[in-house]
Amino acid sequence: MGNGVNTLWVGLAVREAGEVPDGIEALGVCGGLGARARVYGDEAHMRRVYDAVFAWLEQSPDYETDRGQGVLGMETVPLEPVNALTIPYSEIDTFHFKHLIGKRPSQRGGL
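User: That's the sequence. What structure does it adopt?
Assistant: Structure tokens below.
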């Protein structure tokens, strides 16, 4: 997985986790700055969107990717009308989700 991604979680937002069963991990996500891009297209389109977001952050004089402890990127996938999480990756013709990546004010000191 490119751009330093080495772990993926699948989850649902809940107001309260309560008792978490064995094999399930509760993960708290805090707020912060982020960049969001909508993906709606084939795999090549999805990869172009990823490349464009990361390239923008690499070239931006104002922002950079936040790779700090506990900062997570997210893909929000609609579960209706079709739950894409139940379809094998190789069978997906059209990817439809929002990609969110943590960003922070640039600490590069200008370009």
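The helical segments are 43-59.
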